[in-house]
Amino acid sequence: MAKKAKTVFVCNECGSESAKWVGQCPVCGAWNSMFEQKVVEFNENDKRRRTSAASGSAGGAGMPGAGNIHAGKPERLSQVRSSETARIDTGIKELNRVLGGGLVPGSLCLISGEPGIGKSTIILQAAQHIASSKGVVLYVSGEESEEQIRMRADRVCGPEGISENLFILAETNIENVSAVCESLKPVFLIVDSIQTMYSADLESAPGSVSQVRACGNELMRIGKTNSIPVFIVAHVTKSGDLAGPRIVEHMVDCVLSFTGDRSHELRILRSQKNRFGTTSEIGAFEMAEEGLIEIENLSGILMEEMDKDSEGAVATAVYEGTRPLILEVQALTSPCNIGFARRTALGIDSSRLNMLLAVLEKKMGLRLLDQDVYVNVVGGIKPEGTYTDLAVALAVYSSCTGRKLDSRTLVIGEIGLTGDLRAVQNSDKIIREAQRLGFSRIVMPIKNAQHMREKDRQSASIEIIGIRNIAQTRELFQ
Fold this sequence. Notes:
The protein is α/β, with parallel strands linked by helices and 478 residues long. It folds into 3 domains: 4-45; 86-295, P-loop containing nucleotide triphosphate hydrolases (Rossmann fold), CATH 3.40.50; 300-476, Ribosomal Protein S5, domain 2 (2-Layer Sandwich). The chain contains 12 helices and 21 strands. It has helices at residues 44-55, 93-99, 119-133, 146-156, 174-184, 209-226, 247-251, 298-303, 350-363, 389-401, 427-436, 446-455, and strands at residues 4-11, 17-18, 34-41, 108-113, 137-141, 166-170, 188-192, 230-234, 254-260, 266-274, 282-288, 291-294, 313-320, 323-335, 343-346, 371-377, 409-411, 414-415, 421-422, 441-445, 463-467. The strands form 4 sheets. The chain has a 9-stranded mixed β-sheet with strand order 6-5-7-8-4-9-10-11-12, sandwiched between helices. Strand 11 (282-288) and strand 12 (291-294) form a beta hairpin. Helix 5 packs parallel to helix 6 (209-226) and helix 9 packs across helix 10.
């Protein structure tokens, strides 16, 4: 009846196991990612008892909730109910936007971010709304005590007070959490955090690959069998990557990343993986004393401090998910007195910046070999795609030559190695957003400009300038 323990080697990146240590993981190819792990092995009597409990009736001995486990059967796809009609409203529009319209019953969502960035705050606000409108919500805390969470709840739950359906459980044992879920039957489950949870069936420490995989599988069973959404909080490293084994990212349905500077109020929630929606959507929040406040007009906030006609500042736009976003790109060039010139980029890829600087030297005759170049996207936003290529290049050109670009000019476009501009998508929606914010002209690739003149008559109130290559942009400067 005794449990046996065996030693295996587990990859920290993909979670694959090996009977012996190898320098390179045979599955994912990562080097030096294998580490020793002890795994408890049940004897035949234990296996038969657990199998019998899993196939027995509800309330029998064995794993908590094992009575809900049953063999699946095929269904006609035409008769399967769409999850779009069953989404749960979190009460936070920006969070719903990033999730793809709300929480999907039975889904696992992982949210990560630096300490103090607002992860627990936004989850507690969503839990309060769901508890007030849908039913019982269980908040499992493995790090903070009930008193700490109560202090935060008093601050963020508003004048209506804490809902009577919001329950808190300070627990790190996943079997105990499962048992409480079976008795309480919540409509929403929160686990803060996955690295603190452990299973008594394993001898390894919490946060290891075996523990994270076992706890993640149990949370998936709870969510899928009871059709309740599960929110999991995870830690991050100093570089901003998800801490611990990456196996948890593959298990969940949605991975959300919460970013921002703790010295500033702006917070950005981005979806890195979403099986029920787009991965390019972002949500904007402002950290206040009463919690996180939604920002619907993010473009206006990012542009309100832009100085008029200043050197090295150019307005640009990207299309994030379902909405256009207006940004300000700033650049500064300074003579390099000693050593190699520095290239510093905040918000854009460093290799992309080096490519754009090479195009500026070749196609526009700028000498940047002895110039330090600094580029920053205002607001801490990290835009995806190549919408900002032309804006970055013109910001560097403006700072280097001392020529200014009109602050009411918006610039978008992808730059190729030949200096030609390539078309970008959703230019019509970007034009409408630029009109709303009061821009007088927009510079874009000539293919986009021709398409807009043929398609959209309402763009007559804003001047559209189409250019073929970056050399034609000299005429835009004052």
